[in-house]
Amino acid sequence: MSSQDIQKGAFGPHTDRALLIAAEKVRMQYRNMPTAFIGVAVISSLMGFALAKGAGLAKVICWMAVVYTWVVARMIQWRAFNRINPLPADMRLWRRLGVGGSAVCGLIWGVGAMVLYVPDGLAYQFFLVMGLVGMGAGCVYASASVMPSFFAYFYPSILLPAVLFLRAHDSLHFITGVLMLVYLSLMTPFALRVYRLIDESIKLRFENLGLIGELREQKDAAEEANIDKSRFLAAASHDLRQPLHALGLFVQALQETPLATRERQVIGNIRRSVDAMEELFNSLLDISRLDAGVVQPYITTIPLAAVFDRVRFEYAQIARQKHLSLRVVKTSLFVRSDPSLLARLIRNLLSNAVRYTDSGGVVLGCRRMGPEVRIEVWDSGKGIPLDRHEEIFQEFYQLDNPERGSVDVRYGPADKLPEDFGRWHRPSGARSPSFRS
What we know:
Oligomer: single chain
Number of domains: 3
Structural class: alpha+beta
Order of helices and strands: HHHHHHHHHEHEEHEEEE
Strand content: 5-15%
Helix content: 55-70%
Strand order of the largest sheet: 2-4-5-7-6
């Protein structure tokens, strides 16, 4: 089946699919043609050489000339088919040409068997019958996808010499003629079974292609809807952040108001809840902006020390509240990256390390890896199992949380960043990922 057959709507209406199936059967016959006409040329040459002495050299030469003329014509027909590569709608003409060529070949072999028949040469007759039987069996392979072609060749090539044997006056030739008729009656249903198998396999293939086409259309529609949603969220991100920002200001104002100890604890809990909600909301909007393709990194040269100091200041208080040590290794390295996005990624790493470490400490540092710099966060937590490294880069995935199964957005968005910004490094051990810039 060519790529021309796979087109929009090709697998929709039943009539279109039936046309494609019929065209594929014709294509299968033409794909088998080289084997057929090469086999005809070889077998006819061997038979002509074997029968020349008994049937007469002149008869053999004339018959072989006709056979080779057919072989050349068939080869020209096959090459023209491959050169034109006809569409399914134009395949009817080529089907007729294939059937006509098979009919001519059947007559050449049927009449040739009568011409090359040696009345008193039993060995020659046996060799002639064996050649006809072999050619008939090969016809099933070459033409079973188009049954009229099979009938057009097989019946003349067997019936004409069978009549010749049946008209003989001795029982041996008569029985040989009967056996040829039996062979014809057995090969016909066998060829029909082969045809049905071919027909069912082609139909199944097109049904599978139809399902694949429908799934592809549904997938494209779902992806387009997801992109539209992401574009909307990205465009409205500023407006969506305003209520959370206002809520944060209200909570800040309450914290600055003189309150009793219990009320201050409640306000502190509200403050932490608002911060967590704002962080999650910002991550969700970051994903929508990345999905929508509106994030364009501003690549510049920045000192890592400044970025490290900023995130250390943000997470030092959180680490102290959990009685964890937070150490940032000093560095004098510079990298080319987007300052805001790089800081966001480091926050993701550091936030996870602090959140999932119950005791001990967290270390933030970097090391030179040839022309690259690898930023790493080490912690004394339980780490990430080796078989879960790929999962943590899925959007909204959180390990070991069966109740909320898919709400963590720490690593997933980073895999959507452009290639020139940097890339994640999957560690070989059970520890947190690192980022290379």
